[in-house]
Amino acid sequence: MTEILLAAAVLVLLTVLAGLWRVLRGPRRADRLMAAQLLCTGGIAALLLVAGASGSAAILDVALLLALLGAFTSVAFVMAARLIGR
Amino acid sequence: MNAGLLLDLLLALAVLGTAAWTLLARTAFAAVIGFVATGLLLTLVWVRLGAVDVALTEAAIGAGATGVIILYVVARLRGGEAEISAATPNPVQRILAALLALAVGGLLAWGVLNLPDPAPSLAEAALAGTAPLGLGNPVSAVLMAHRGLDTLLEAIVLVFAVLAVWSMAADHRWGGAPGPVFPRADHGPLSLLARILPPVGIVIGIYIAWVGTDAPGGKFQGGTILAAMWVLPWIAGLARPPSVTDWRLRLMIAIGPLTFLGVGLAGFLIADGFLAYPAGFAKPLILLIEAAMTLSVAAALACLIAGPPERRRRA
């Protein structure tokens, strides 16, 4: 079971890394921002899978924290992009 | 192939890749996004290494504080090319810095690869010292008891960091509220998020700070979440920062280090010495310090994000 969960985490990470290509290439700031959000969401999924594989409840707290602050980061991105864009 | 090994390999490559890309990014905005992405992947790396406390800190500081602070720096440096180029080191300095970083990194890698097997470790001693304090998290035991002096000094550094930021204020603005004024957003996603997220986030922040004595978590992570939950309504224009001369704000920033110092000095009377805890009372005292420190970390980080006073004091 542990192996299956970790393999699923590898799959999630691979899809996220495909999204990372967008972060790196852009070309627009919005592309980068959306891909960074995808990275955050994928990171939460990978953390949950790793938490299931290792049986550690504390890892769930890390996922919770990322879920909370992921939305927060996007707000900061948007604000900064607006400040730069002016 | 072993799935865990594959995951670790993938993570290591991704972190190295994003780190290199961040250094080579052409625009500052892209570099910040690369930096945040690197931090996110590092969170996963810390979890895989079993350092969940560090992963929590990386997630909170990386996603909640550093990314935002650097983004503001980028946004506010626009148009300041002369200042930026004056502060940018010349190529020789950069090459020297790169060589120094390579040498330090190489020496560290060499040291780790040449560790005896099993590697020398204080983990056993730290674990043995955790239970007598009544704590369940050995990291908290090390931070608050065995190496309490380091943590006390870190707490005091936060106050000095706020002082350093505030001292950037122009004379005639001293006494005003810190940071820029954002237009009030009454409608739209930002306003919605700024109203809905903080109640949830404040509970999670207090939870992370509270759980720190028995599981990964603690004052820095919890305080960072609380600071982020204040920054959100501030950006939406729904909350106003207090004046830097407001005694309540100053008390909030100082209460954590003062409590820590007070309990530490009380150790001379009620225990074996400075920063020692009396037997049986360690956990309540540590929780008292952690609670005060959570408030101070939240206030100090919020002040660091907001920046120096930018408005005149209202007459």
Distance between the termini of chain A: 52 Å
Uncertain segments of chain A are none
Largest interface: A-B, 49 and 55 residues
Structural class of chain A: mainly alpha
Largest sheet geometry of chain A: none
- The helical percent of chain A reads over 70%
Quick check: average pLDDT of chain B? 86
State the helicity of chain B in percent bands: over 70%
Structural class of chain B: mainly alpha
Overall shape of chain A: flat
> Count of helical segments of chain B?
12
The first-to-last residue Cα distance of chain B is 71 Å
Q: Tally the structural domains of chain A.
A: 1
Quaternary assembly: heterodimer
Largest sheet of chain B: none
Provide the gyration radius of chain A in Å.
15 Å
Radius of gyration of chain B: 22 Å
Average pLDDT confidence of chain A is 82
Account of the protein in words:
The complex is a heterodimer of chains A (86) and B (315). Chain A is an all-alpha fold. Chain A has one domain. In chain A, helix 2 runs antiparallel to helix 3. Chain A starts with a helix and ends with a helix. The relative contact order of chain A is 0.14. With 315 residues, chain B is mainly alpha-helical. In chain B, 70% of the residues lie in helices and 0% in strands. Chain B contains twelve helices and no strands. In chain B, helix 2 packs antiparallel against helix 3, helix 8 runs parallel beside helix 12 and helix 9 packs antiparallel against helix 10. The longest helix of chain B has 25 residues. Chain B is globular and about 55 Å long. Chains A and B meet through helix 1, helix 2 and helix 3 of A and helix 1, helix 2, helix 3, helix 9 and helix 10 of B.
Short structural summary:
By secondary structure, chain A is mainly alpha-helical.
Topology record:
The complex is a heterodimer of chains A (86) and B (315).
Chain A: H1 2-25, H2 29-54, H3 58-85
Helix pairs in contact in A: 1-2, 2-3
Chain B: H1 3-24, H2 28-48, H3 52-76, H4 81-87, H5 91-113, H6 123-128, H7 138-146, H8 148-166, H9 189-211, H10 219-235, H11 247-270, H12 282-306
Helix pairs in contact in B: 1-2, 2-3, 3-10, 7-8, 8-11, 8-12, 9-10, 10-12, 11-12
